[in-house]
Amino acid sequence: MVEDIYSKALMAVDNYRYRLDSELFRNPSSRRRFKKHPPSLSDAQLGVVDQLREHGIALVSFDELFAGRAEAEWEKAASAVDSFVCSERVRRGVEELHNEFARWIRGGCNQKNAPPDFVARQFGSDGPVDPADAILRLALDPLVVDTVNAFLQLWSKLREIDIEYRVPCHIQLRPRKSAQTWHRDEWEQLKVFLYFSDVDEESGALEYIPGSRRGGPFAHLWPLPEGRGADGYLHPPDHIIAEAVTDSDRILCAGPRGTMVFCDTAGIHRGGFARSRARVLASWAFYAPAAFSSRGGRCFHLARPPQVGSLSEAAAYAIG
Length: 320
What we know:
Elements: H1 2-25, H2 27-36, H3 43-55, E1 57-61, H4 62-65, H5 70-85, H6 88-106, E2 119-121, E3 127-129, H7 134-139, H8 142-152, E4 157-166, E5 189-195, E6 207-208, H9 238-244, E7 251-252, E8 259-263, E9 269-270, E10 279-287, E11 300-302, H10 313-319
Parallel strand pairs: 3-11
Antiparallel strand pairs: 1-8, 2-4, 4-10, 5-8, 5-10, 6-7, 6-9
Helix pairs in contact: 3-8
């Protein structure tokens, strides 16, 4: 009883602080910057923004978004990703998982001791990122950052960047937990994924319920508070989703190498399991200045100061 009262009080305080930051302190200046320097969007960018507003999710090919210079940009990014995939860190991770899998089989396949879901990340939490890194430069490219800002209607902050290699485990050994269960993140953020491998259900593709973001037909399902839940996430029980959402009402964000996914993660979504194939992708998370996650600063740090003159004003703001 006391814990429930405390949780509700904390949520009320969070909501109040969020509204102050959103309307008075943190977001207004970034909104003014956006209105003063409205981006000029290509047809592909406009298509992404329209899909996001209608569904909360948008898939577009890298070639379409970066039309005219896709080959050169892809070559630089793919080279960086390939270097990571072939790195000692990934090799050790794959070997570690295979060893644990063998031990699990020898031990009788007890579900409680199933091998963990292993993901190798290039940067992780607070990893150093070179300002010239090809994956960072893609995030700050006007074709990406302007699309994000046009959806959020403000100048956003880039808080997360990574390259991810999810090791396939051949069969689904573990129950769903954390990000692999249906959940919402907080308001005023947008996550972007770029596939460097073919991604489908067998490699752990993201699942999303279109129309579950604010204003959509499924927004009422386990609604997100104005600020955030007391634990920062909201995980509705599976039966809530199963009873209200049919298979045809959700989408699997599958796509070939070169697919980009723009996702409003305040909508209901969940990750998958890599079973027969590895999943390789780059990811970026953009947040409004008022978002609670923005308060802790970036989840990476720059290895050296960037050459600001080589960035657009919106891009410089994103990493400033």
